[in-house]
Predict the 3D structure of the following.
Amino acid sequence: MRRSLPFVLLLAGCAAPAREVARLAAPNPPVAPVPVPDDPAPPGEVSPLPPAALPVVASPATRSVIVVTIDGARWQEVFHGVDRDRAIALGLSPDEIVDGRALMPNLHALGDRGVVLGAPGVGAAISASGPNFASLPGYGELLSGRAPTCQRNDCARIADETLLDACRALPGATSANVGVVSSWETIELAASRSRDAFFLSSGRHHVWRAGALRDPTMDALLARSERAFPTPGQLDYRPDRLTSQVALRYVEAARPRCALLGLGDADEHAHLGDYRGYLRALRAFDAFVGDLVGVLAAQGEHGATTTVIVTTDHGRADGFVSHGAKHPESARVWLFAAGGAVPARGEVALAQPAKLADVAPTLRAMLGLPEAPLDDRSGRVLGELSR
Ligand SMILES: [Zn+2]
């Protein structure tokens, strides 16, 4: 999602930090604080844990959804693993050149328990609508269920109702258990058509409704985020190692009905041409997926009835570093889904091409939410994710 300098200056001028800490009239019960480590592990230094298993219930239904995104992670590494030529050129050892399943074991374990769309050679592709395959258009399409009118990263706030906006109508939904946690601050513009509708922590300083959680651990994590450097991003970007901790604590404390958890280091390293850093970001993201599954597994029926979707906002150019309108191959994305009503089918062949815009209508249908108004920008329900 890296931006050119004019965009940087424009966004820096219009996206002032906003911390909203007012308590709601009917807050959630307090959550027991847990120790916050002084110094989180550097990116890439993640322990190789065995893949965690999603809980299984006899009659699964989807009552909650969590959309997890990794910015600009292309299908090539997700499915085929480390690029051999790049690895050799960088001097990586032979045991570092692994396939997709070894590179991202938790993600593939999730797919084994659910559905994988967009695997190469398996049916039709899933793509961003574009035609400019950039981050804010991608997130807007994913969350609104409509092909984007926004084609740049400096668009205004989304005008369409998003999945998260719609989730506020679910029984039991509050401004605490609908939420967004992301590394890239600008995701807030795609998350909701309102500015402060629910919990949000995007980048290091964009925070809304944190008080609704009544969670001292979250308050401590957010305070530490404010002091961090944005590397490998810019401006108000929050590194994934911190965003991951905020996101996991959010899921623990809020038991979200609907959430977007968005990491971004992979795209930042790719724009810098740093393939080693990109691989580290993929591995760290995979560890985060494993940790998230573990948190949900400890949440009993709530975790078992939560559908997790993992996807990306765009692919990458054949040259790896870039993406966008000049690189039509960067349209291609991928999707893993599991939990709740999603059947265990593994890699599924799409009968017709799918779009990121299809995700929100599919999740709305799973949750029993009414359809969004239909027009020629609307996505369709993906029957492949249902029983
Ligand atoms: Zn990018």
